[in-house]
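The instructor's notes for this session suggest beginning with a concrete chain rather than abstract definitions. Hand out the sequence below and ask the class to guess, before any prediction is shown, which regions might be ordered.
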Amino acid sequence: LAQTLESVRNQTLPPREVIVVDDMSSDTSVEIARASGVRVLSTEMNSGPARARNIGICAATTEFIAFVDADDYWEPTHLEELANLVARCPSASVYYSRVRMTDGIIATAPLRDPAGVPLDLRARLFQLNPVPQSAAAARRRALTAVGGYDEALRFSEDYDLWLRLSRTALFAASHAVTVHYRIHPGQATRQ
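After discussion, reveal the predicted structure:
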C-alpha cells in the first residue's frame, strides 16, 4: 500500500483527492494510509471490494474516479495519460490503459482495442475483460447511473460493472503501459 500511495502522490497530473477505503484489513494498511495524509474511510465489516469501491465513489467529489488496488501501482504519467484520453474522447465514460503484470517475470498485457477512439465494447466484453481495474477511470455520473459495483459479488465485480456500463457508455483505451499489476499468491483472484 505504501508503494501504491507513493505512486499516486508522484503523478505528473496530481489527483484532486485521494480516498482509501479500508475493508476491515487485519494488517497495518489503515496506519499506512493515514500516515500518507489521504482520506481514509472504512467499511463496517469485511464486505468485499465492491462495497469498498462504492463507498469511495459515494465519498468522491470529482467528476472522474480512477481506481488502484492496494497491491498495484501507477507509473507517474498514468493520470495524465487518462486525462489526454478524456480530451480526445469526450463522449466516452470509461478510460483505461495497459498494465504490466509482474510476479518476478514481467509481461505486458496485450491491448487489442484501438487507441484514442470511443469504443462500443458490448460484444467484446462477452469474450473477455479488456479493462484492468487498476488502469481504469470512469465518470462518476456513469458509475452511479448503473448503481455502482454489485455488492453481492466478491470477485469479478469490475467485469460485471464494465458489462453493465457497456449498455449505455463508450470506453476509450490507451496503448501506453501506465500500471503495474502484481501477481502474487495472496491476491483475491488467485484464491
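Then share the key points. The first helix runs from residue 2 to 9. The chain has a mean pLDDT of 92.
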